Amino acid sequence: MVGVGYTLMCEQTGPKELVEQAVRAEQAGFDYLVISDHYYPWLDAQGHSPYAWSVLGAVAHATSRIKLMTYITCPIRRYHPAVVAQKAATIGVLSDGRFTLSLGAGENLNEHVVGAWPHVHQRHEMLEEALQIIRPLLDGDNLSYSGNHFEVPEAYLWDRPETPVPIAVAASGPHSVALVTEYADALVCDNPDAAVVRMYDEAGGTGKPRYGQAAICYGPDEDACRKTVHDQWRWAALNWTVKAELPGPESFVSASDHIRPEDIAQLVPCGPDLEAHVSAFQKYVDAGFTDVAFVQVGVEGQPMFLDWAQDELLPRLREL
Has 107 been annotated as catalytic? Predict the structure, then answer.
């Protein structure tokens, strides 16, 4: 059965409300939670960006069953990889082994706050070095590491869960899929891309988890949902090569000015139609994903969405 997740969107919700959403999502029957790890929102209209790891600690304490996952942490600029490993191990302990660390090469939007944003080729090198540091630390090794980008003279994690924290890595092509296969336990891909899943299988990922994320906007009024999606989610229509490079929310506002409500509504199902939202999920299932997390766009609709998910969406998905 495909796991169904719920996204804690730090860009659109404050920290206390995120913890409340996590508790309600567990009650509703979701299998896992993913949380975005950003310094800025994508657009000013979203209006939030609390520290994801503080929220995760509170969520780990406030929940008991539901699995937890970052989506996605960048370990190459804003955080040193050795510190990412320590944070992940601590959340693993606090959650009694419910946590998965998901990693990726990040975006300028969030990482430039501590210095210049590296070139894409350098970022990929840095991500591989980060994995070479994080993986052994989570496995309980004493680590000394000297790379082109990172130095770890000596490190050891004193508090770790009994089972090492699993690592998932975002991939979109052959190079990143190779990183997943060599260093990680699971694949992450933002699009229902069957080709990436096939590459992962061919590289040795058969039988391992593949995580995706489907954005929707449930609500009784389709037009109102479209306005919400255009106001808060139109940045998602941009190509990832653009999204990775823009430096701030004002840049995303400018870059997405040309996107109309009807354009973004083609990417994000809007309104009360259950089957339209199920279809967004099904695309990932058909592409070979094992776990799919919903993003409910818009902060105002979260309580209504969670009630609807418990009563209608999750029972329908269990039928698939």
Answer: yes
